[in-house]
Amino acid sequence: MAGVLKAPGAFAITPHKVSVCVLVQIYASPSQISIPFPFSSVSQHNRLGLYLLALTKSCDDILEPKLEQLISQLREIGGLLDHWLTDHLTSRLSSLSSPDDLFNFFNDMRGVLGGPDSGVMEDDQVILDPNSNLGMFLRRCILAFNLLTFEGICHLLTNIGIYCKEAISSCSSYELRRLDDSDIEVFADPKSEHNDKGRESSSYSSSGDLLRDVDLNGGVFLRTNWQIQGYLMEQADAIEKDGSSFTLNAFELTLRQLQKLAPELHRVHFLRYLNSLYHDDYFSALENLHRYFDYSAGTEGFDFVPPAGCNSFGRYEIALLCLGMMHFHFGHPKQALEVLTEAVRVSQQHSNDTCLAYTLAAICNLLSEIGFSTTSGILGSPFSPMTSVGTSLSVQQQLFVLLKGSLKRAESLKLKQLVAANHLAMAKFNLTHVQRPLLSFGPKTSMKLRTCPVTVCKELRLGYHLISEFCCEGSTMTTDGAFSTAWLKNLQKPVGSLVLSQDNSSRDNSNPFLFCTQPSSIPGSVLQLVGSSYLHRATAWEIYGSAPLARVNALVYATCVADASSSSDAALVHVKLIQHLAVFKGYEEAFSALKIAEEKFLSVSKSRILILKLQLLHERALHRGHLKLAQQVCDELGVLASSVTAVDMELKIEASLRHARTLLAAKQFSQAAAVAHSLFCMCYKFNLQVESATVLLLLAEIHLKSGNAVVGLPHALASLSYCQSFNLDLLRASATLTLAELWLSLGSNHTKTALTLIHGAFPMILGHGGLELCARAYIAEAKCYLSDPSFSVSDNPEVVLDPLRQASDELHVLEYHELAAEGFYLMAIVFDKLGQLEKREEAAASFKNHIMALENPQDGEDPLSNA
């Protein structure tokens, strides 16, 4: 039957491949000159070669292009030769009217290839290397033709006829009048309607439209297995990068139709699993994952190298790894840990060291992201990776052992990308954990219970350098296919049509290095690791307290690798930059940037952008005194942190912290202290020590404002101790400021102590602190001077007024009414002592305005729906 779809596992000769062979013969004509006819320059000759190379490797679709699409592309790259190329191509195809013509055609193809049988060659003779990409393609075409039966050759002739007739039917009436005696020459306008429906997009939509129009009795052919696999890999990368850009039903329809056309292509099931996974369809994802491993035994589409001497057990361990990651994605941490532990057992039994290394890395990621107070009963099985050291260790110690083991195993297997990822994981662990002795007996060596920023920086640098060696693990299908696809896409872009416009007589010399200007061929997974390195650096500087360095690394990420990053990582960078704006520039600029981010990222449940919006709304509501709105936002955060959808410890802590701050603003001190104490117990249970420092500081604030300064002192000192251990410099400065406020509230006898503490924290606060922290420090300094019996306002009033004015300006940007009212109250006292009654009344009026704003907040529009 004419037009029958070829199996993707076989390399079948098709009309499109015959057309490419014709073009290859033009490119590598066995002439006696270095620039064969009809080319007039080396760049013109090279441009056709680059096009042919891209055509044989592109992964932009699963169907071979038709003749009119091929001619349209030739017009973009042919330059002044586009008419000659299309005329020669169509006339050569029309001349193939009998089996003998095909035999003679492929016999001529042998002369294009070089080799030991090609005889003596001249120095400037053009001969195609048989081992080159185009040479291999030509050899496969010749072999596929030689394997055809006579009936198959007749089918090929019929298909060539259909292939040419479809080109005629797509021509406009004007173009038909221009046809010559060959009866199939096509001079299609590259801007014609059918060209606009070309292959500019490699997304599911273009292939889906083509597949919906597939006629099994027409001249439609699937591309080579290599190209189809490359297309599916590109779609998988695109889904993992930004699954929300794929419409669930539309892409599902495309995959189902592809499955009908090539039922033996089991990787389609894996794409259906990914599509369901990133659209949160649990049951469909589970079903398709089971189908994929049932049909393919897990060997199709994975880059894991089979271990030497490994028996084929269906790659059950890989299926378990995928299932565990699926449970992790859907927020089932316990099931994920159980499945991954089983994957460790099976990998060990089957001696699959590579899968074992990836599984250990997945367990490490799970333990670091999800809160576990204990793993007993899960990691204590006979095949558990923790069996050798026992399970009496804390979860954090078990995580450290697993990280070291995973890193060592990845290094021994020379899995450089996994080694780099493990270095980043080690940096993240060392950032928030103090390394303690794993053994509770034997001689003890003295050690400082502190984190080491040098170690963190070292791990980050090691990971970054290893990423640069990606070429040892790079997939040629990924790099070559993506590179060729991008090159063909750029033929359709306006800039290409301008550079190669027919109206430009010098277009043959223009843009000769078009192929070199394509996007980088670095795999997307490697670029994501590079981005993760900068994200970790930004997070590290945030924790250590250097806002400028955190912002710089976030900007580097957003500028250099945002296009290759996943949507979640890109959203995280936007969150960091917007938070920086809120802290240092105020809410107006932050909400303006948030509006842009909301247009780029969908504010779905639990998205980082939605959480950021709630955080900003809560902070602004507290500053304005909108306690009802603040509580409403807290309730929204509490819903997102619900354990029904998953236990996100970071979000749960955030919701509890904001609940306690709302109660504190409402002067419900006992309830606020109870919430904060419960939160500290949870942090202690899960060994979240950095978070514990923040909660202790909150408890100190609560006791300060409730008038129990003596009770608050131990909490402030404990928070300082945590900050010193984990090098939390900015939080340490904030804790020092709170400690000074506590000392000051104990009476005027402690003003010197408080002032010394404030001045000691000033360099860090003024250099790296935000508007609110700086304003607090200024007001606390002024209060210390005013509370000191030995200080005379009349002798040096500017010592007090300057910091109060600075605080006033910064609090005005934040709309922080309570703290601003306190500042104007102090200013009124100073002006009263100086006898400046007019300025005193101005300060008093400002004080009253802020008090009234606190007592009568105007909620206005619903900010939860419109920021």
Automatic annotation (TrEMBL):
InterPro entries: Apc5 (IPR037679), Apc5_dom (IPR026000). CDD domains: Apc5_N. Pfam families: ANAPC5 (PF12862). It comes from the Eukaryota. Belongs to the APC5 family. PANTHER family: ANAPHASE-PROMOTING COMPLEX SUBUNIT 5. This is Anaphase-promoting complex subunit 5. It comes from Durio zibethinus.
